[in-house]
Amino acid sequence: MFRAVGFGSAGVSGAESKATTPAQLTVAGRGNLGRSLARALQARLVPARTGFRLPRRGLLFLAVPDGAVSEMATRIAQMKPPAALGIVHVSGALGLDALSPLEGNPRGSFHPLQSFPMPRDPSAFR
Question: 9 in the Ramachandran plot: left (φ > 0), alpha (ψ -120 to 50) or beta?
Fold first, then answer.
């Protein structure tokens, strides 16, 4: 069993699911939000720029500014993400339509419950 904790710009939402292997969590982002989210999820952090390597499975959190979500979704779609990779954004201002280029993948959004003015230790989210 793994515990996936989602943060929409980071508020806490927990979900438990049975799996034979732990979920692979990756955060594509920059700045305080990307670093804080990756640290809290104990996830791999990759820069949200051209050339980053897509995970083969698990969840990819797009921790980018609201205006960059659709562009990132288009770029990721052009990289032909594997069907086992779910992609979520953390914008409270956008719906799932921002991820429409990724219709072949599981998609979601985690809306913010608090802001990230500075990086925090994972214990801050408990």
Answer: left
Looking at the domain that runs over 2-118, which CATH code has it been given?
A: 3.40.50
Which residue matches tokens 């959004």?
A: 109
Q: What CA–CA distance (Å, rounded) separates 101 from 118? A: 32
77-102: pLDDT as tens digits: 999 999 999 999 999 899 999 999 99
pTM of the model: 0.68
Dihedral of alpha carbons 50, 84, 78, 112, sign: negative
- Pairing state between β 2-8 and 11-17: antiparallel
pLDDT of residue 38: 86
List phi, psi (to 5°) of 91: -90, 130
**Domain extents for the chain?**
2-118
